[in-house]
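Progress note, sequence design subtask.
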């Protein structure tokens, strides 16, 4: 083969290598952007339990806004995802080790935010009490009061037919600084702040444990839509003294 005839083949190989390099760079940039988005902006979770029905159903996939609450703070009514502050979740059974290739793929998907394998380490509830709030259950109408003002939650609570009591467990708490009081919408089937008052935390969740505010249901497609904070239910609540 002459030098002139080998030149096109060399150029083709070089062109192919440049193409592979460009693809690799694009993939790495996309993965990095996805990681940054997942870590600081938006993150995906799925719902593992019925504690937030009817608002969220088992196996719903949701998006969580991690960025906005850092600037605007959380509001009463926000649906939030948070890390277990200790003692809320039952110990998870040991699962058989997966093949290395499966583990690697899952790690990559979780890294870029497509997978949500750490959902089992997190919970989702609604913010009822903010730092300093005096939260009491219940008044004569079965309503929770916050700083003396009753809140009407019937628009979003999943209660047995004919039941209007916001909780079948009475409580009277003052939310500590930098913490929140969280309850599930499916009150009779939610192990929330009420169920963990015997813990050192008193059932309160540190704000630092909150990943972000759930704002969109993305799957299944027939449930695609925003997640309502029902903030109007809390409009009459005064600031804590």
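Output:
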């Amino acid at each position: 083969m002459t030098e002139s005839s080998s030149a096109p083949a060399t150029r083709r190989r070089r062109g192919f290598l440049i193409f592979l390099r460009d693809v690799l760079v694009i993939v790495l940039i996309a993965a990095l952007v996805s990681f940054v988005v997942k870590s600081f902006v938006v993150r995906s979770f799925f719902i593992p339990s019925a504690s937030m029905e009817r608002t969220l159903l088992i196996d719903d996939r949701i998006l969580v806004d991690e960025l906005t609450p850092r600037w605007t703070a959380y509001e009463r009514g926000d649906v939030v995802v948070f890390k277990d502050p200790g003692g809320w979740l039952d110990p998870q059974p040991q699962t058989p080790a997966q093949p290395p290739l499966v583990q690697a793929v899952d790690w990559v998907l979780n890294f870029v935010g497509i997978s949500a394998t750490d959902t089992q380490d997190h919970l989702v509830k609604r913010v009822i009490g903010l730092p300093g709030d005096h939260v009491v259950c219940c008044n004569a109408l079965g309503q929770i009061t916050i700083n003396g003002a009753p809140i009407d939650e019937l628009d979003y609570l999943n209660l047995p037919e004919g039941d209007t009591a916001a909780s079948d467990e009475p409580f009277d708490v003052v939310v500590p600084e930098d913490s929140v009081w969280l309850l599930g919408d499916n009150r009779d089937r939610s192990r929330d702040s009420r169920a963990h008052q015997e813990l050192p935390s008193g059932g309160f969740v540190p704000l630092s444990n909150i990943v972000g505010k759930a704002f969109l249901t993305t799957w299944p497609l027939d449930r695609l839509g925003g997640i309502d904070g029902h903030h109007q239910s809390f409009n009459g609540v005064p600031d804590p003294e």
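Residues 78 and 240 are 18 Å apart (CA to CA). Work on this subtask will continue into the next period as scheduled.
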